[in-house]
Amino acid sequence: MATKKTTPGICYLVGAGPGDPGLLTLKGKECIEAADVLVYDYLCNPAHLRYAKDGAASIYVGKKAGDHTLSQEEINKLIVKLTTEGKTVTRLKGGDPVLFGRGAEEAAELREAGVKFEIVPGITSAIAGPAYAGIPVTHRSHASQLTIFTGHEDPTKPDTSLDYAKLAQADGTKVFLMGVERIEEITREFLKHGAKPETPVALVRWATHTHQQTLTGTLADIAAKVKAAGFKAPAVAVIGDVVTERPQLNWFEERPLFGKKIVVTRTRAQASVLSKQLSALGADVIEIPTIRIAPVEDQMSFGELVQDCHTYDWIIFTSPNGVDAFFTMFDKLYNDTRSIGGVRIACIGPGTAEKVKARHLAVDLMPDKKNYVAEGLVKAFKDHQDMENVKVLWVRAQETREVIANELSGMGAIVDEAEAYRTIAETEDNLEALARLKEEGADMITFTSASTFEHFLNLKVPLPEGIKIASIGPVTSAAIKAHGFKVDVEAQENSIPGLVSAVEKYWK
Ligand code: SAH
């Protein structure tokens, strides 16, 4: 073997899983976090790149049939070069790196160059794909054997390395990858070599992704069905009796929001809570942050009010952002939570209350359920106590309705208003998400405040035809209607979980 030079570089050949962002291994994630350079494929979900450290480079070498950004030789050269330079290179491949992934070839090149590598197995689409369609690849009643083969080779070519006579006769389940384009030849070969025409077949396209599609049939009719449906790659194909389990075990595609494309506005930081809950119900979420939370310019006045917070009878929080801004300032001024004194705390709703509770502070007052708006909080105060001469500090957004101040003052309270943050348009690059919305459309768009809606309008993106509008509550709905739009769904309980359950109910 050639003399090896040792460099601190290392290349991790990592299986990125079949697509569901949760189907990445812990070791895979660690390799992404450690990488100086990420080199990733077409079938690797780019969502994984969010684990990369700041400043890490990412290089797309996507290979889609017929559209090779880089040839395999160029990819080999690239990872060898980067690793030889001493970098930590994480090479992400869809599914498992050594199942039809050419991971072995890349490993051999790295070995040849004398640099270190590790193989980090991944969850392969060959098994996970069928599982997400409710098809187990083995089953005590149907199959005790599994054969995985590539559908890439033309079975009619004399130099094919596959023996279809043996494949057709093999017991158990047969799974093939890269075979949608050749489904006609492959099924024909199976039938020619004695497989039963009624053998069940399923194709799972974009398996484990929110837009997964499954097509079922038999060896005799699946090719015609693929043609009729315009069913395209990438898909995993399963042949065998295990496919009959699908009606009982189809769990992924039966989740309540499966197949629904839902747009989430809000800030980048907040979107994730709503997105996660919608995704958990099966929705395909497009995040288009329209607003961003920024500090107020007058930090001095805000700081003075926060400093005096212990002199009030009540602090009122009307948004989670307000709680964050308040305590960021509080922590700059004090290093002891007890400096907040005996002041009582009121919150507009459960999301805001959660933020307060996270600081191990109790919430003393909240509106009744289904009434998490300013008016609801005013009513709660009315029912709670006489407000005459009661000192209130209202922690608010710069731009918000004046209901709290006006109504509580009207009841005799002394209200000081602490402008804690402002909502500004998100200027970050939303282009990709907006292009997706334009291209694919969506079933529904959600708005969690009047400002998310107004800033969405400012983006000047026309709403796709027929898209439904969901609003978190009456105030947001009023803003939407004021611009001539119809609100299709309004949350009964004006909170994120309330919005999620209203959306779910709507599509039931
Ligand atoms: N190493 C990968 C397979 C790479 S070959 C793995 O272990 O999954 C590429 C083929 O894999 C595609 O043509 C398709 O047949 C299959 N494939 C990969 N990801 C898929 C997915 N999410 N859904 C359906 N098929 C997928």
Structure commentary:
The termini are far apart. A hairpin with a 7-residue loop joins strand 10 and strand 11 (213-218). It contains 18 helices and 22 strands. It has four domains: 10-123, 3-Layer(aba) Sandwich (Cobalt-precorrin-4 Transmethylase, domain 1), CATH 3.40.1010.10; 127-254, Tetrapyrrole methylase, C-terminal domain (Methyltransferase, Cobalt-precorrin-4 Transmethylase, Domain 2, 2-Layer Sandwich), CATH 3.30.950.10; 261-290 and 426-507, Rossmann fold (3-Layer(aba) Sandwich), CATH 3.40.50; 298-423, Rossmann fold, CATH 3.40.50.10090. Helix 10 crosses helix 11 and helix 11 runs parallel beside helix 12. It is 34% helix and 21% strand. It has 508 residues and is an alpha/beta fold. The longest helix has 14 residues, at 320-333. The mean pLDDT is 93. A five-stranded parallel β-sheet has the order 3-2-6-1-7, with helices on both faces. It has a five-stranded mixed β-sheet with strand order 8-9-12-10-11, sandwiched between helices. A five-stranded parallel β-sheet has the order 14-13-20-21-22, sandwiched between helices. The protein binds S-adenosyl-L-homocysteine. S-adenosyl-L-homocysteine (SAH) binds next to helix 4, strand 10 and strand 12.
What tags apply to this protein structure?
508 residues; alpha/beta; Methyltransferase, Cobalt-precorrin-4 Transmethylase, Domain 2; Rossmann fold; binds S-adenosyl-L-homocysteine; EC 2.1.1.107; uroporphyrin-III C-methyltransferase activity; transferase
